[in-house]
Design a protein that fits this description.
This protein is of the alpha+beta class and about 140 residues long. It is built from four helices and four strands. Strands 1-2-3-4 form a four-stranded antiparallel beta sheet, covered by helices on one side. Strand 1 and strand 2 form a beta hairpin. Helix 2 packs antiparallel against helix 3 and helix 3 packs antiparallel against helix 4. It is globular and about 45 Å long.
């Protein structure tokens, strides 16, 4: 991780994880809202396609989703790798949220949601040879 921090210019592991957490939260909320423009900034093309497909399926079914994150456990750094043209960092995120589907016309919630525990490992990557390359989510894996 030390080499990644040096090449990336990030001050500390804590700062890196804090930035990754902000991205995680933004992606979760953008996904629930169906905000493809926001997702395209943070996701690799492959991950974006998978998220966009799910959003499309919800749209075809006339579903809208509201998600509220209400608690989280401190993210856990799982792995960091450096290759010639790619740096990767995998982080485990654990959060609890309410996911509420609603009807788009009436905007009334169809049912009351119970809290869901979300545990997943997200892998972020960027090319160290490109100074302005952004960290993007290149893989997600749900646990439990």
């Amino acid at each position: 991780m030390r080499e990644i921090l040096q090449r990336d210019g990030t001050a500390s592991v804590e700062a890196f994880v804090r930035n990754a957490l902000a991205t995680y939260e933004a992606v979760v909320l953008a996904f629930a809202a169906g905000d493809r423009d926001a997702l395209s900034r943070w996701l690799s093309p492959e991950v974006y396609d998978a998220f966009s497909k799910t959003i499309g399926e919800r749209e075809e079914a006339g579903e809208e989703m509201v998600e509220t994150l209400f608690s989280r456990i401190e993210p856990e750094l799982i792995e960091a790798r450096v290759e010639e043209e790619r740096m990767e960092v995998s982080i485990r995120f654990t959060s609890e949220s309410f996911k509420l589907p609603r009807r788009p016309v009436s905007l009334f919630f169809r049912n009351v949601s119970t809290p869901l525990r979300n545990v997943g490992i997200w892998t972020f990557a960027r090319n160290p040879a490109v100074p302005d390359d952004l960290w993007r989510v290149v893989a997600t894996q749900t646990e439990g």
